[in-house]
Amino acid sequence: MSERYGTPPRGVPEELERALAAEVSLGSRMRQVAVGLAGGCAAALIAVLWATEPRPLPVRTQVAFAGLIAVGLAWAVLAGWVLSRRRPLFARDRVLGARLALAASVVTGVAGTALAAARGTAPEALTVALAGVALVVAAGLALARARSRQRGLARLRDALREGGS
User: In whole angstroms, what is the distance from residue 163 CA to residue 157 CA?
Assistant: First the structure.
């Protein structure tokens, strides 16, 4: 672990030291920078597009733009929160990110399916619904993995605390 995050106390299990080093690694931080930039840039791009429309947009388009801006800002805020922490988060960032992905997937899937059902044919609506289900399942699996990682790191942390007492 780098000096910035402090040196691990003596007797830290090697497995915990490796896990915590991965949590605060440069690669992990750079992924968060990329997520924050992607979310912030997407939100800004949509806001600029919306603001420069020559005529008022239909209400449903305004709602969609507002939703997309909110999702982009949520990713940017999550990345900012993670980057502002100077210590391992024990996978809390992964759980929050997976929850955000699940929420966005559910809303997108439901809205897309409703729109396809109202405007398209039955096969089109079914296709959109299946794509929405696939996104929700993928986000759900990501959440399950994140929670599992969080539990594993918490067990290692607790073992260290018990061993150090």
Answer: 10
The CA-to-CA distance between both ends of the chain, in Å, stands at 23
| Separation CA 33–CA 38 (nearest Å) | 8
Each residue of 52-65: pLDDT tens digit? 999 999 998 999 99
Whether residue 83 contacts residue 29, with contact meaning beta carbons closer than 8 Å, is answered with yes
Q: What is the DSSP letter of 9?
A: P
| pLDDT tens figures, 14-46 | 776 777 677 777 888 899 999 999 999 999 999
Structure tokens of 132?
Answer: 């929405």
d(CA 30, CA 129): 34
